Amino acid sequence: MTKKPTVFITGTSSGIGKATVELFIRKGWQVAATMRNISAPNDFSEMEDVRLYQLDVTNSELVNEVARKVWEDYNGIEAVINNAGYGAIGPLEGATEEQIAKQMDTNFMGSVRIMKAFIPFFREKRGGVFVNVSSIAGRIGMPLYNIYHASKFALEGLTESLYYELRPFGVRVKLVEPGPVRTEFNGRSREDLITNDQAGYKHIVLNVNNLYGGFFEKGDLPETTAKTIYKAVNSKGSRLRFPSGILAKFLMVTNKILPGNWLRVITSKVAGIKSEI
Ligand SMILES: NC(=O)c1ccc[n+]([C@@H]2O[C@H](COP(=O)([O-])OP(=O)(O)OC[C@H]3O[C@@H](n4cnc5c(N)ncnc54)[C@H](OP(=O)(O)O)[C@@H]3O)[C@@H](O)[C@H]2O)c1
């Protein structure tokens, strides 16, 4: 009997990660699903084709240990999906060093650690695919997501460079770029960067939060992003970027065709951000 293909996915306790596990199972894959807390109730403990591994992507030692274990358990795997992440939002002035470091450590360094752990295996095997879950926020800067944008822009640059470096070994890299998705991203996973009332950001924070709240409410289902991830994993060509969902695609095209700073002017208007200059 031929072995089912295997995918390794980070951050599978909710949202996009969880929907991606479910989709790959339906498509006949085996899944090495990682979570920060595998003892919390989850839908996967009884599933035959899912094995759970406890993993916090900020823990280098654990990342290396789990990668080695997964490779051994499955006698090699075919795909790695860097999905774990969260968004810090608010004025940069209100961010502590710890908040900034944690955002970069999770969204950017987390993916770097996982890739470094699996690259030697994929290189030796002469095959494998990394899918990094970036965001429209990895292509276009929007108000108040400053450090989150930095983490996703960094992930985009890293992945684009690795395209050249890993291709000679038959290893593919892909970026999935969702717009707003209805998950825990704007709920329990969200981290607020807070300034005091005198600093004068209050109305910007209020207006932008209202605007984003509407986007997230009407956002894509995580299943839509899961489908894009599946497509990226199976894409054998040179395509690097996979925008996901209507808003992401719309913004990407708008950003390309609008002259100069129009998108920033329109975004400021829509977000109710007045300028003093
Ligand atoms: N939702 C959106 O609108 C949207 C749009 C574009 C891109 N994205 C990206 O999509 C990815 C998944 O987010 P989501 O929308 O599905 O949100 P979510 O429902 O909050 O899921 C985030 C997942 O990441 C995990 N995670 C956070 N920090 C971690 C760490 N240090 N180590 C391991 N796992 C960690 C969470 O685990 P715990 O349960 O332990 O917290 C959770 O499983 C993120 O990279 C996000 O930036 C989301």
UniProtKB/TrEMBL annotation:
Task: Write one Gene Ontology MF term.
Answer: oxidoreductase activity
Q: Which domain of life is it from?
A: Bacteria
List the Gene3D superfamilies. Answer: NAD(P)-binding Rossmann-like Domain (3.40.50.720)
**Source species:** Alkalitalea saponilacus
Q: Which UniProt keywords apply?
A: Oxidoreductase
Q: Which family does it belong to?
A: Belongs to the short-chain dehydrogenases/reductases (SDR) family.
Keyword flag Oxidoreductase: yes
Q: Could you read off the lineage of the organism from its UniProt record?
A: Bacteria, Pseudomonadati, Bacteroidota, Bacteroidia, Marinilabiliales
Q: Which Pfam families does this one have? A: adh_short (PF00106)
The molecule here is called Short-chain dehydrogenase
InterPro entries assigned: NAD(P)-bd_dom_sf, SDR_fam, SDR_oxidoreductase
